[in-house]
Design goal:
Helix content is about 50%, strand content about 5%. It is an alpha+beta fold. The longest helix has about 35 residues. It is elongated and about 85 Å long. This is DUF6311 domain-containing protein.
């Protein structure tokens, strides 16, 4: 997560780590521009490299680690294109979980991306769009982080490049790139943080507030959870600054609050209806059953462990620490370098002190209800043991994801450390009052000659083991020709559904979910992969199982046909009526034989049409 930390003690138009007493010599314009172009180009190439395994056969590959998530986001790109093409409300869809539908605002719908990119999705298809966007989002996050660092925090372009690369391709971010592009779409977050820290700028409170409101409203349609994490980080940053500079903070409080009110009011105005729809619209829910996410805390050993998808990582370590998200996983060299950098910088740099507060505070907060070490849950309570499961907004959070703020703080720390080694000075601040200049007039000394190469080498060697490998991908069979060629069309009139076997769910039915995505959601399907209301309106994963879908899943798990009774047949007809089915379709599947026998026992003999088994149930329902 890109959570930049800038020093708001200076004029917000040119924020810096420490003030500069005299103006540094001007550099030619061409050199920074060239450095900027090279940095952005390097980030783009790294984004392509991370997605390299998909491009080998982009039509038939999905994430090896999260194949169902990958397919869900392909479906989301198709949803955006379908909504634009048919001018339908993108906040809700009836193309999945028929006939009830899915509340898209209550799911990770990525509407801020899928709707603007709908023309490209219609042109290229959701598989290509997924891979293209994933690499682009990684590079774009690194790019906006680089812009924030180079314009508002450090003078050295090398320092900004190192920090931006880490913020865009941090281990936790690359981990989420395995099927969860919403968590790598952090390109607005550096812009949001900079805008928050400019809210106290005299004379510009309206403009700054409006800019912040627009950014926040847009981020709501990309990833609300990352927005919440960023808001928490900003709260800590502003609080830490106020503690260090109480007089300056008090002097700017009125302007800051006025601009914050404008930004918050505008964001609420723009997002009011979608947010109402999320919590009160059809298929909305209240929290998750059992507060399932609250137990997902970060293992303390994870902070010094090499992540799986890096040159130094290995899948074997997951068997020790566990299969939770790898949101920290910095490796011991980077953890050591970060601690040394903090110790050296914290006395001289206000930004480093704020980084220290973020690192300590969010490391502790990332621990779940119980402290875990090296895969073993101890008897020591963690901070989330005291957080109610039903606390609004927090009820949907995973403690481990708070470690993404730590990753953002470490990225800023790397930039600060590299800049200090380079002897870089921040951009020249606008004139300030005499008391403020006197309070800030400490300039970091030029590092000793021997310290510069040693420091560069230490940072480089700490980061090299974290260089990402191409994300692992696996082959997935294409949908049947009967589906892609439109052979189903005579069987599925308007208002009726096509029932694929197995019915898509959060566990089963990955291939059949892609039938919908890769045909542009041409037909509605029952079931699906989403979060919707369950008992007592609490959220649950997937649709509530019908008796027939439960029978299908249990048969697949057992691999043998159970005894089929008249009650099973009666219930199958009732479920097909509920789904408004017109045809049941079974394509190539590892469990094809037993599934065909099951559906034959329930519905009678099928017909072989093209490359599928087909049960025409229009006469039954």
């Amino acid at each position: 997560m890109a959570v930049p930390v800038v020093d708001p003690s200076l004029n917000p138009a040119s924020v810096a780590v420490e003030p500069v007493v005299a103006d540094p010599p001007r550099r030619p314009r061409r050199r920074p521009v060239r450095a900027d172009v090279l940095a952005i180009g390097a980030y783009a190439l790294l984004g392509v490299f991370v997605c390299l395994n998909y491009w080998g056969d982009v039509q038939h590959r999905v994430s090896s680690h999260l194949p169902t998530d990958h397919s869900w986001f392909e479906w989301l790109f198709a949803h955006g294109a379908y909504s634009v093409r048919h001018l339908e409300n993108p906040l809700f869809t009836a193309r999945q979980n028929a006939p009830d539908g899915v509340n898209m605002m209550a799911n990770t719908s990525l509407l801020g991306v899928t709707l603007p990119l709908a023309p490209l999705t219609l042109l290229l298809g959701p598989q290509v769009m997924y891979a293209l966007y994933l690499g682009g989002a990684l590079g774009a996050t690194a790019g906006t982080s680089y812009w924030m660092l180079s314009r508002h925090l450090v003078r050295s372009r090398g320092a900004a490049f190192v920090g931006g690369a880490f913020l865009g391709f941090a281990p936790g971010i690359v981990h989420h790139a395995n099927g969860q592009p919403n968590f790598v779409s952090n390109f607005l977050l550096p812009l949001i943080v900079v805008r928050v820290l400019r809210l106290g700028e005299p004379g510009r409170w309206r403009r700054n507030g409006i800019a912040l409101g627009l950014l926040v409203a847009y981020q709501i349609f990309i990833n609300e959870e990352m927005l919440l994490l960023t808001a928490l980080a900003c709260l800590v940053i502003v609080g830490a600054y106020a503690v260090q500079r109480p007089r300056a903070a008090w002097a700017r409080a009125g302007t800051f609050l006025a601009a914050l009110g404008v930004g918050g009011g505008l964001a609420l105005l723009l997002a009011a209806y979608p947010l109402w729809f999320q919590f009160n619209g059809p298929q909305s829910y209240r929290g998750l059953q059992g507060g399932v996410f609250h137990s997902w805390g970060e293992d303390l050993a994870a902070f010094v462990t090499f992540p799986r998808d890096t040159v130094a990582g290995s899948e074997a370590v997951e068997q020790t620490i566990g299969l939770t998200e790898q949101n920290s996983w910095f490796g011991w060299p980077l953890a050591l370098v970060a601690l040394v950098a903090l110790a050296l910088l914290v006395r001289r740099s206000r930004a480093a002190r704020i980084v220290a507060v973020l690192v300590v505070g969010f490391t502790v907060a990332a621990i779940g209800p119980k402290v875990r070490f090296n895969g073993v849950e101890t008897a020591i309570d963690g901070p989330w043991a005291y957080v109610p499961d039903d606390l609004p907004l927090v009820e949907m959070m995973m403690p481990t994801r708070l470690a993404l703020v730590v990753a953002g703080a470490v990225g800023v720390l790397l930039a600060l450390a590299w800049d200090a080694l380079a002897g870089g000075r921040p951009p020249v601040p606008a004139p300030r009052s005499a008391p403020e200049r006197a309070d800030d007039a400490v300039t970091p000394p030029t590092p000793r000659r021997w310290l510069r190469p040693v420091g560069y080498a230490a940072v480089t060697l700490a980061l090299l083991p974290l260089f990402p490998r191409p994300l692992p991908a696996q082959h997935v069979d294409p949908p049947p020709h009967f589906i892609t060629a439109g052979g189903w069309r005579p069987y599925v009139p308007a208002g009726r559904t096509l029932v694929p076997v197995p019915i898509p769910s959060n566990v089963h039915g990955l291939p059949t979910l892609r039938w919908s995505a890769l045909t542009g959601q041409a037909f509605p399907i029952p079931g699906g992969y989403f979060i919707g209301p369950g008992p007592e309106e609490q959220g649950m994963f997937g649709a509530p199982n019908r008796p027939t879908s439960t029978l299908i899943y249990s048969t697949m798990d057992a691999g043998t046909l159970p005894p089929i009774t008249a009650e099973h047949r009666r219930q199958a007809v009732a479920d097909l009526r509920f789904w408004r089915a017109s045809v049941v379709v079974l394509g190539a599947n590892p469990d094809e034989t037993v599934l065909r026998d099951l559906m034959t026992a329930l519905l009678g003999p099928p017909r072989r049409v093209d490359d599928v088994w087909l049960w025409d149930v229009r006469g039954l329902v």
